[in-house]
Amino acid sequence: MKQMQPPRIISRQDHPISRTMISPNVIKILYRLKDNGHTAYLVGGGVRDLLLGREPKDFDVATDATPGRIKKLFRNCRLVGRRFRLAHLHFSDEIVEVSTFRGSFAEESAGDTTTLPPEGDESANPRRQVREDGLVLRDNVFGSPADDAHRRDFTVNALAYNISDFSILDYVGGMEDLERGVIRTIGEPSLRFTEDPVRMLRAVRFAALLGFAFDKATWQALVENAPGITRATPPRLYEEFLKLFLSGEGEAIYQHMRLGGLFAPLFPRFSEWLERETEGFPHVRISKSLEWLDERFSGGTPVSTPLMLTLMFGEYLEEIAVFYRKQGVSPLDAIQAAVADFMGEQAPLVAIPHRVALAVRDIMILQYRFRKMPGKRPQSVLARPGFSDALAYLRCQSETTGEGADTFAWWESYAKDQVLPPAAMQMDSVAQRPKKRRRRRKGRVPATSL
Ligand code: ATP
Ligand code: MG
Fold first, then answer.
1. What lines the ligand 1 site, CB under 6 Å?
2. Is 121 marked active-site?
3. Percentage, residues of the chain above pLDDT 70
4. Nearest to residue 368, comparing CAs of 445, 297, 302, 428?
5. Does the N-terminal or the C-terminal CB of the chain have fewer CB atoms within 10 Å?
6. How confident is the prediction for the chain on average, in pLDDT?
7. 109: confidence class by pLDDT, cuts 50, 70, 90
8. What is the pTM of this model?
């Protein structure tokens, strides 16, 4: 059994975190736990971001109170999670995650752990389950604050702010790495990436977002383990994919992923295509599109998931569509087939939901319609789902490659001149599809309206 070192304690006067920087709901939670005799810490990315002077995305709390006890203390509590059981405390404007200190792998005791063959039966229901290949399926062994810090992913994510004396506890050298700007796994990097391959994607996300460098051993292990990224489940990889490319640092993340060997295993056919030149030209549009997206984020303009996907994969989809066109398929069916092919390729790796795929298809199809200016019934084009995303896509093409600049200018000015009910301009969100005015076959594009 590994001997845990006592933590380095950074007292209140030696760090910049004050209670006013923390959400009042979180402060209340920390105090209620403390006043009921529990240890209560603010943990994870919230502490990291406050120390860096960045605005935290969310706040997480860790405590020695068990999930059952948390439920008793808070009426707004819902217990969630199977892989990790934790409490969600619901407030009108936020949900705060409260987790019970978990045991680290070093403290593993045989009775709590079962090992399963790779596609094993999970019905045994122990508190911790590890597949034969090292992937952790379930981890609900409670532990000490030290254990809890050690089972976290990176040193900079393992700092804890203690509500009882406002100090920061550092068990793993996180403060030093934060000051130096280093992403380092806690413990042996290869083992940590085997337990959970998604940590490799988290590593590149944090490095890009925080502008940090990789610790050498962490980077080496990432490169070695990168092909294993596909061991994570497709829905989880999709979730992480969104975090990566809707972060505002998509281009840097993309470069890290390519360099580390994480991109090709997740998008194999697309990556093969990227390596090939088309008519003597390398495919550089993805990088330019990601830079354009990142700028849009920094300008405060929200970017929808379908727009992001179309910007990343649009050039590839267009080429597949050309292939179908050459075989005599109609332009719209060719786009439809190209999107379907891509989604089929990706389904076993990064599971892109069907409704998102349909929205990508809508953006692509509108590009085809845009070529006619005005064409028949241009007003109906403005009311089509995905119009403003499609226009943003065209804007990106015209700004990054110069292609379609006239078309973009025409449609942008046409859209501005039209007096539209406000709702019609916002219909690009997947969730806000307009009511169908005419009957359509589900999932089919009505060619006549184009
Ligand atoms: P952000 O919320 O800004 O994306 P974060 O570090 O807070 O970053 P979360 O996903 O909110 O990330 O997780 C909260 C904390 O839980 C992390 O800081 C880390 O300590 C721990 N954690 C999250 N995912 C993992 C993982 N896959 N393995 C180990 N620890 C993890
Ligand atoms: Mg967080």
1. 44-45, 57-58, 60, 152-153, 157-158, 196, 198-199
2. no
3. 84
4. 445
5. N
6. 87
7. very low
8. 0.86
Atom 15 of ligand 1, nearest CA residue: 44
Interval 61-100: pLDDT, tens: 999 999 999 999 999 999 998 667 799 999 999 999 999 9
Rounded CA-CA distance 384/426 in Å is 10
Q: What does the alpha-carbon distance between residue 50 and residue 27 come to, in Å, rounded to a whole number?
A: 15
Task: Enumerate residues 6+ apart whose C-beta is below 8 A from 20.
Answer: none
pLDDT at 420: 57
**Per-chain residues with Cβ under 5 A from ion ligand 2:** 45, 58
Q: Is 58 a catalytic residue?
A: yes
Can you give the pLDDT at residue 419? Answer: 60
Hey, whose CA ends up nearest to atom 8 of ligand 1? 45
Choosing from 49, 147, 153, 362, the catalytic residue is 153
The one catalytic residue in 60, 64, 139, 148 is 60
Domains in the chain, start-ordered, CATH in brackets?
Answer: 8-114+128-183 (3.30.460.10), 285-425 (1.10.3090.10)
- Measured from the Cβ of residue 158, the count of other Cβ atoms closer than 10 Å reads 24
Task: Summarize pLDDT for 347-401 with one digit per residue, the tens.
Answer: 999 999 999 999 999 999 999 887 888 878 878 878 888 999 999 999 999 999 8
